[in-house]
Amino acid sequence: MSSAATIANALGVILTRGFRSGLYRAVTLGVAPGLTETNYPILSSLARSSEPLSAANLAPGLGLDRSVVSRRATELIRAGLVTQQPGPGDRRQALLSLTPRGRTAIAETRCRLEAVIADHTRTWSDAERATLAALLSRFTATPLAATE
């Protein structure tokens, strides 16, 4: 099997819903009421953004329909982790951003994620972990070309 095929297989496992759900469950369980493995990706995406985003802006990056993102964002709003404001140019547009509680929750989930990764790679050498980190950073630094 070629290196590209081995990488493709490994990425396929990481990208499966079961793998992601298990990982997200591990990092969200008990962090904040209302935060779940299904709405965590929205909270995480908002944390990575430097500006408020609409459900329509979030949806493509999450691979979800806008209506699904809206429903899950509503859960986060009810939990006090996300706030919603009207868009400056179109008051019908709802812009989402983290609340202070949301920022605290994302900080906790990121600490947990680091702990899960550290545990998962505990038998690896420091050099192996550093190599994986460097190669993943390099791989994700340039977006893959969109195909239609």
Task: Please specify the SSE layout and strand pairing.
Blueprint: H1 3-15, H2 17-28, H3 40-48, H4 55-62, H5 66-78, E1 82-86, E2 94-98, H6 100-120, H7 126-141
Helix pairs in contact: 2-6, 4-5
Descriptors for this entry?
148 residues; Arc Repressor Mutant, subunit A; single chain; two-stranded antiparallel ribbon; mainly alpha; 7 helices; 7% strand
Question: Can you offer a commentary on this structure?
Answer:
The protein is mainly α and 148 residues long. It has a single domain (7-121), classed as Arc Repressor Mutant, subunit A (Orthogonal Bundle). It is 62% helix and 7% strand. The chain has helices spanning 3-15, 17-28, 40-48, 55-62, 66-78, 100-120, 126-141; strands at 82-86, 94-98. The protein has a two-stranded antiparallel sheet with strand order 1-2. The longest helix has 21 residues, at 100-120. The mean pLDDT is 91.
